[in-house]
Structures are given as structure tokens and as C-alpha cells.
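> run fold 3-hydroxyacyl-CoA dehydrogenase
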Amino acid sequence: MTTVAIVGTGVIGAGWAAHFLGRGFDVVATDPAPGAEDRLRADVTAHWPTVTRLGLAEGASPDRLRFVADAGEAASVADFVQENGPEREDVKHALFGVLDEAARPGVILASSSSGLLPSVIARGCPHHPERLVIGHPFNPPHVIPLVEVVPGRDTAPEVVDRAMAFYTAAGKRPIRLAREVPGHVANRLQAALWQEAYSLVERGIATVADIDAAIAHGPGLRWAVLGPFLNQHLSGGPGGLAHVLAHLGPPTEQWWRDLGRVHLTPELAATLVAGVDAELAGTDQQALVAARDAVLDRLLAAKAAQPDLP
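> ok
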């Protein structure tokens, strides 16, 4: 594969474009929004120092980006299609109707959807629903390795195999879900944490800033290295996970029963937004994003240098 179509060039699409350019692909991008090409080229330029630090493939260049006005034209010349349109079923159906019509047979149509079921999106593919798969990245896509590959009811197994191989060859760390579920895996895990975080704020137990600090300066540091199961296993010492489950399982079950159930009311939403505003008072958000990405860059390099990490 040499050419990737990026359909939709917002935050996620621009990150994908920068990543694929950095991996030595030709990228043909499309987005109907006014000024989309200028914004995309500016975003790729802004991302390029980070992409460069992460390592460029031979021949990688932002000059290999081409912008076209029509999604069908982009799909017709692509070896792989990465769609990043709005999270609306009607928009997805209309868009994938065009992509399915224009793409050559056998070209995978991957959606970056963060939670829609691939079987639902595939209703928009009148010819080849078997080639549609979710390829959900994590923001920012040009930095974070994870891609969730999710098949729908009609997705051919060999399409999932090929998508996994493609993302791996493109420098990603894909995981393969056995079946579709709303929100996939990582967003469902995030949603569970957000539910309790929102509840703690709503109940006045901790502030937005304190909850951010509790994760960023506590378990989040370990989670950036190993996942929840391996972290639990290591915390059990010689007894490992079996010891943790035997000794901390009962109190953990009690905590589960006490977790908050929240409704995102206008009042709670206003409280959360105000909390973030207070936490960021006097902070340059662009500088914050740059600092985040610089730390992620160094973290990824450090992890890559440790062969004992999974």
C-alpha cells in the first residue's frame, strides 16, 4: 500500500494525515468545510516536528500530501481509506455510500468512529459492507500508538487481518476486538472513570483540579507504562494477581457498590467546565498541548527502549 485517503480533516483527520505522511505514504485528503485545505496543511506543519522526533520513514515528506474536493476522488486513488467524519449515522451512511462506490474492490474502508457500531455504519455501503471496519485511533493520532480494530456483522475476517497488518506496518499498536460494542474498549474504560470523577465533583468530595492531580500524579503514571491487569499483578508481589484478588477483591467489590451514578445535567456540566477553567487559569492552552505532546514523545521513546515491556 502506498496511498492513504484521509476523509475528514478535523483534529483526528489531521493527526492521521501527519502520521501517514511520516510513515512514508502518499496522502490524498478531502473535507468539504471551507478553508479545510489551508487548515490541514497548517496542522501538518505544526505536527511535523513531533512526527520527526518519533522517527520518519524513508521518503517521508509533507510534500506528499494532496488535497481534493471530492471524497469519491480521494477514495478512487487510495489503497486504504481512513474516514474521520462527524459521529452521526446519517452523515456516515451518506459518506460511506460515496466511498463504497468509488474505492476499488478490496480497498479497506476504515472509520475512526469513537463509538458507533461498524454494523450500523456498514448500512451505508450498498456494494461491499464486508470491507468496512472500525480503525479507532486515540487523540492525538500522530502520537498515540493505539488503534482499536472492530469488525461488524458483515466484516470479512481477512479484512480484519489486513487492517491489523496495515496499522502494525504503519507504526501503530492495534488491538482486535472479538465483537462490536458501543464505545469499543478504551472509551468504555474512560467512561467508567469519568462517571466516578463526575460523581465525586457532584457530591463535593473533590475538585476538578484535585481529581486531575490524583490521576496525573498517581495511577496515571503507572497506566502509561502497563495496563490495569499487569499493574495489579505487579502490586501483588510474589503472589501476583492471585494475591491481590484474594486480599483486595472483597473491599474492591464494596467500592464498586458505592460508585456514583450521575446524570450530566446542565448544572453538573457547568460545574465541570468552571472547574477546568479554574484549573487552567493563566495557562496557555497551546503551550499545554505542546508540553503534553513533548512528554508523550519522550515517554514513547523510553518505552520503546525497554524490551521487557509488553
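The domain at 186-279 is CATH 1.10.1040.10 (N-(1-d-carboxylethyl)-l-norvaline Dehydrogenase; domain 2).
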